[in-house]
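[job 4471] stage=fold_predict status=RUNNING
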Amino acid sequence: MSTYLHKPLYVQIQEFLAEKILAGELSPESRIPSERELSQELGVSRMTVRRAITELVNEGLIERRHGAGTFVAKPKVTYDAFELISYAQALLSRGLMVSRQLLEFSEIPASKRLGEHLHVEIGQSLYRVSLLYLANRIPVVLVRTFLPCERCQELLEYDLEKTSIYDIVTEGLQMRIQSVDQSIEAVIASESAARQLRVEDGFPLLMITRTVYRADDGFPIEYSQDLLRSDYARVHINVARPEDTVPTPE
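[job 4471] inference complete, writing structure tokens
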């Protein structure tokens, strides 16, 4: 650790371990030596090691497991808000091997709730599509999408395991998108979602609810509720405040 001179000891240890993790020398899910083992190996106090470990936990690089020890955390994909429209592109841009599995493609009548979201009458035909996205063969996103059949009849002609719905709508069907309305909330995995995402029942997930509106008439073209494994995802949102906005004193 000679390259870390002039820094506090705990910072030297923190950066030493972080470099090993980021270089792949310590792989995800591998166990970190105990505080006692590290203090003996590095010749520092356990308190110093504990502070370094705490900083790495706060950074999300490692995690403590009660009764088991400290382990390298699974890498999380940070999605920008717009990237939630096309998961494959976001995952590929981070060097991950991406694949899709088509779980369902069926035609259903619109319920009252779906009719309200998609601005169609109750009973009108909708396409229901379920897709599972895998990153390095690990299921990370479960997409559940509804589209009015009359607005995208050509959807049947495409291979949904090779092309994203957003690309089909914008490039294949030549629709211009006016806006995308999205919300994010924490939910727990149902039995079926847990099975598809290979997690336990009740596992914490992020649910992205999304409505996509086309530009020519402002009608919704897609309504989705996507489930992201919380241990593999975080969402980044950058909000620019208008320059002329003045905070109101409380």
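[job 4471] summary: The first helix runs from residue 9 to 22.
[job 4471] exit 0
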